[in-house]
Fold this protein.
Amino acid sequence: MARIETKSLTKQFGGLVAVKNVSFSLSSGEILGIIGPNGAGKTTFINLISGIYYPTSGSVFLDGRDISTMPAHERARRGIARTYQLIHPMESLDVLENVMIGFIFAAGKSLPEARKSAESLCAEIGLSQLHRSVSQLTMLETKKMEIAHALANGPTILFLDEVMAGLNSDETKAMIGLVQRLAKERNLAVGVVEHVMGVIRELTHRVIVLEAGELIAEGPYEEVSKNPRVIEAYLGGAA
Amino acid sequence: MKKPANYIFPLALIFAGGLLPVFLGAYPQAVARSVFTFMALAISWDMLLRSGQISFGIAGFFGLGSYTAIILSVRAGVAPVVAMLSAAAFAALVAFLLGFLVLRLRSTYFSITTLALGEIFKVIIHNWSSFTGGPEGLVLPQVVFGGKSSSLYWLSYAILLFAVGASVLFEKSKMHFSLTAIRNNEIAARTSGINIFANLLIAFTASSLIQGLVGGVHVMSYGFAMPDTAFDANYTLLPLAMALLGGIHSTWGPIIGALLLGVISEYLKLMIPYGHLLVYGLIIILVILFMPRGIYGLIKKERSKRNG
């Protein structure tokens, strides 16, 4: 059953069409890869789903309900969470407080409850020394905090925007394991934007490919990676 | 975690503040009232600043409160307590309604607009002579408590404690998280379920309520209001300087800053009339350059260093 769906989703910035006519769906327990060259519209697509932008035309559906013009904070409360490609943690708050935010506002918990939930979530994903300032975290810890920050919403739908970027290969492996475990245990519908194809192959059940805002291919990674149009999009027309 | 010692010092301070009139003469009490007035304004300014919004509208809402109280007293003859509470309520109402417009703006656009709002309030009052008394202003038949110094002191002290209480409530509640998140990263705050506009509206309204209340109490204690004095730019500039010096994004910071600058400026006013403004400007510049977290910021840093 599709949890989140888009129909002919389009976003235009002045003369630039960043996302063009994209229709897709994502179900619980599924991990979907969203790939495409730089500037293909992947992040804009996530921004449309999480409510940072409203579409120029087309619609976003959550469990069949049109949420195209629902504000971002309402979507967060209804189970949509995401991480950001450019990470800007709340630098005036410590690690624990960063993770508490989603518990407080999206999940609607009281401060003591949120504190407890945040502590156990951090323990679950392997974040310790929670009263550190966020500037003291390693890259892997920062990424884990990003994920914890998103999971605090209590989401059923999670989008990860380049959460592996900047990690070494061991860290990437650990992160893949973490995302798989979380998706399974929580029966999440997960969308992953990623540039490293090894990660996409390991992690995802299905892939959609965007190029210049358009969805040009869809299917399992093995299939999509052999698609001539996808190869051309990545390598350019001359190849 | 919470140690009883954390409460002893503030409680002792509150108690000591209440006892001061027993020991002090009328002049120091008047100085203290002036310091409390600016301290409450500095705290109220900081409460909104925690969301990242820099308001230059303190004098505007202070003046609005002043005029609400004095107009109600002179024209309708209401009781002083009603006049002062109405000042708070009217400033809050105006902020709440204008919030729908100005809280769409950010950074300098917000700041400039709040500055302009204050000027607009002033121009309206200046020109609506039949109702507001125009440029000559209005005079109360008599000030509250018959002008008794210690009573006026306790009144302004109570208002200060109200402002401190509101600020501490902001610090200890969900507001602390929502306002900090909005200041640090507004977009990530939205996708964490924070209703940005609603939280800004609460902060703007609460901050203006305090400013209106302080204005209302001020006018009832001094007995007159003129557009040039009620909307004096000092009511915006001094609280700002105090909060910056003491340390922003905290309750202690504006308290420390207002104590220091308040006492210093009282002294300077006697030494070099109007020269104190020069000193103020200098302090603001030096603090921004060399001590962006203010005095309380330094104290906190030292403390966290010592605690490892």
User: Anything to note?
Assistant: Residues 23-232 of chain B form one domain.
